[in-house]
Amino acid sequence: MRPPGLWSSAWQCPRHGIVHPYTVLSHLGTDAIDHVLGRAKVPVWMPHGLRYGWVCSGVGYAGDERTGANATATCLSGPSPLGGPADLLIVAEEPGIGLGARHAGLAEPDPGDGFDAGPPHAKVNAAAHPTALWSVPGGEDRAVFVGEAKGLWLWAVVWPASAGVLMYDEMSLTDLRDWPDDLNLEFGSVSPRLSAIPQSRP
């Protein structure tokens, strides 16, 4: 791993190439959302239609300060349909970034060939467009779904794995870049799921 150059904060990995710095906002609120929106070059997805008790529990992004954020992560926390607490992480990213894959527990930055063979395992409405998601093997403690929306990877990672049944309910995703200024969100504590990956891929 080589350190960043003079004009960039991105690191260089011999295997994966550029590794973009990953930032998790330490405090939640509209200011944190505005901070991410001001840098986002990809959607900042916010699920709605979840069951009662779910709150926004974190936002993060990956990207160089010069080029903006080419990957964003939004976390929500609430009660699992099967009992106990659960976390849902939604990642939008350009191919090859690897933020969603690393949260999913995969070794490579993308889901790989053939992940979308056969019928989809779940569907969401992303910016009012029906979007197919396929289940892919990830870490044993989580359920992982991936598809494409707006020409970018869309990842949904759910902890614990049993709470993955959330993805079988009707869920809509709104790009926060398109939401009005009077956006009203419920915020909770920052989830440790957002920072559950190293700052860079090995």
How would you sum up this structure, described in words?
The chain has 202 residues and is mainly beta. It has one domain (27-189). 7% of the residues lie in helices and 37% in strands. It has helices spanning 30-37, 99-104, and strands at 11-13, 17-19, 22-24, 45-48, 55-64, 68-79, 85-93, 122-126, 129-135, 143-149, 152-159, 172-175. The strands form 2 sheets. It has a 10-stranded mixed sheet. Strands 1-2 form a two-stranded antiparallel ribbon. A hairpin with a 7-residue loop joins strand 9 and strand 10.
Top keywords for this entry?
202 residues, 2 helices, 10-stranded mixed β-sheet, 7% helix, disordered N terminus, globular, disordered C terminus, mainly beta, two-stranded antiparallel sheet
Write the layout of secondary structure elements.
Blueprint lengths: L10 E3 L3 E3 L2 E3 L5 H8 L7 E4 L6 E10 L3 E12 L5 E9 L5 H6 L17 E5 L2 E7 L7 E7 L2 E8 L12 E4 L27
Parallel strand pairs: 8-12
Antiparallel strand pairs: 1-2, 3-5, 4-12, 5-6, 6-7, 7-11, 8-9, 9-10, 10-11
